[in-house]
Amino acid sequence: DLTTASFSRASIDIAGNILLTYGIVHCIEVGGCQFTKRPIDRHLNLLVALGGYTDDGKIFYLKKDWKNSNDEFIFDCRTTNGISSVGVTIHAILSCCALPTHIQCKLTSIALEISVRTVIALIAQYRPCVVFESERIIIFEKINEYSNHDLVLEHLPI
């Protein structure tokens, strides 16, 4: 069940993409960063920034209609300690790929470790983006025409 993000260390990183694709995601506390007692607060903040709503902090429903919105999506990928988070950066990148292509996305304070660079190289095939390394910013440009190349995680070869 793809709507449940759990049971692997990186599972929380796909929660935003699932929320935007299916309209619902269930975050089980055992999965993601909580597996090692690290907080997942920034991941949950990302779900809310994407338009998610929750009553219990575990099941998020998509309330924002991005298809009929012209809003820009901006998210800061730092932890509450001010450190750029690899997991939050990857989570935000994968989430931006599920937003409609007419939405410009800007991620700030991104981590630039090799795992993030690998994800950027992969997603650049699906959605054009520009990385400003010195400022730690990635921008997914607005594409006004409909694109059938939106990244859906099920389509990735694993």
UniProtKB/TrEMBL annotation:
Protein name per Swiss-Prot or TrEMBL: Uncharacterized protein
Example of a GO MF term: transferase activity, transferring alkyl or aryl (other than methyl) groups
InterPro entries: Enolpyruvate_Tfrase_sf, RNA3'P_cycl/enolpyr_Trfase_a/b
Organism listed in the record: Adineta steineri
